[in-house]
Design goal:
The structure holds two protein chains of two kinds. Helix content of chain A is 67%, strand content 0%. Chain A contains six helices and no strands. The model of chain A has no long low-confidence stretch (mean pLDDT 97). In chain A, helix 1 packs across helix 5 and helix 5 packs antiparallel against helix 6. By secondary structure, chain A is mainly α. The longest helix of chain A is centred in the middle third of the chain and has 22 residues. Chain B contains eight helices and no strands. The mean pLDDT of chain B is 97. Classes of the chains: A mainly alpha, B mainly alpha. Chains A and B meet through helix 1, helix 2, helix 3, helix 4 and helix 5 of A and helix 1, helix 2, helix 3, helix 4 and helix 6 of B.
């Protein structure tokens, strides 16, 4: 049953990524060129609602659909790993024009070359795992 | 019902993304897509090469199911909900992209120069796809999350590390588009 719920949420996410055009390489380019409000509107409105939602969940101690406490995990404090990792991610995001969520959406939309991007992203993740202890965090 | 066939405006799309995050929280999970790349490494046997991949991938089955859903969602949206997939980017963006050699700007969902199947036979296009993917995978794990985990989940939870990561995303993106694109595509 829970699997069906996860699948449904994924489908909703995939449709949203495609229809919002957040999965379009062109929209990412346009965003970094500051030529249109579209992507900023998407992220901004998602954030305003997201912040309010999480604050309400915390304030009223709202339980999950299954009656469990909803956990939020504070991320470990650091500047270097988030900044350096973030810059590397941003370089790739702008070059491939896709971040990990939309990449999967684009498989379903039938773009074969995105499989190369995903395979390379898995390899990039693997390289991080190998080099992790040698990198500043 | 016609609105569903047109591109969704930001004020529909943004709230829908927040709704997806809300649904995942309400089933006791967190919204973050790039951790699936780590799980895929584990499934491929990367645990023998680095401790970072020694984890019980079955505990991540829920997120892989979300991935399968995202693929199905992309199929449904592209095939049944989008009669015309051309992305209406601004005329300035189209003209900039044409100068860089992207003649498909304004006429397609993704640039055909990179994402048509035949582009895989072009060395430069293939190299761009591979380097882009490598940077995304490496950077996302180094930063501990991607657009969904940091820019949406983390910032919604007012986490300072996520703000630093998102600033990094933008520094990287701006450097790529404004400084490196003219060198790569000129």
């Amino acid at each position: 049953m829970r699997t069906v719920v996860y699948l449904f949420i994924g489908i909703l996410f995939g449709i949203t990524m495609f229809k919002s055009e957040a999965a379009s390489w062109f929209r990412i380019y346009e965003m970094f060129k500051f030529d249109a409000f579209h992507m900023y509107g998407i992220i901004g409105s998602a954030l305003v609602i997201g912040v309010i939602t999480i604050q309400l969940i915390k304030k009223f101690n709202i339980k999950s659909f299954y009656g469990e406490t909803i956990h939020f995990y504070p991320k470990t404090r650091s500047v270097s790993r988030y900044l350096i990792g973030g810059i590397i991610f941003g370089l790739g995001w702008a070059l491939a024009g896709a971040c990990p969520g939309p990449m999967f959406t684009l498989i379903g939309a039938g773009f074969v070359p995105i499989l190369v991007v995903i395979a390379a992203a898995i390899l990039g993740t693997f390289l991080y795992g190998i080099l992790k202890d040698k990198l500043p965090h | 019902m016609n609105w569903i066939y047109s591109p969704w405006p930001w004020y529909v799309s943004g709230p829908m993304i927040a709704f997806v995050m809300f649904l995942l929280l309400m089933v006791g999970k967190n919204f973050g897509m790039s951790s699936n790349l780590r799980t895929m490494c584990t499934i491929c046997g990367a645990g023998t090469k680095a401790d970072f991949f020694k984890l019980d991938w079955r505990a991540q089955k829920w997120n892989l199911t979300v991935v399968i859903g995202a693929i199905i969602g992309g199929f449904i949206a592209a095939n049944f909900m989008t009669p015309d997939a051309a992305v209406a980017i601004t005329p300035e963006t189209i003209s900039d992209l044409q100068d860089l050699g992207f003649n498909s700007a304004g006429k397609a969902y993704l640039p055909t120069e990179l994402f048509e199947t035949s582009a895989l036979l072009d060395f430069k296009s293939l190299a761009i796809l591979i380097i882009g993917g490598l940077l995304v995978g490496f950077g996302a794990r180094y930063a501990g999350g991607c657009t969904s985990g940091h820019a949406i989940s983390g910032l919604s939870d007012l986490q300072l590390p996520s703000l630093i990561a998102v600033v990094g995303f933008f520094i990287g993106g701006l450097v790529m588009i404004h400084l490196l694109y003219p060198l790569i595509f000129a």
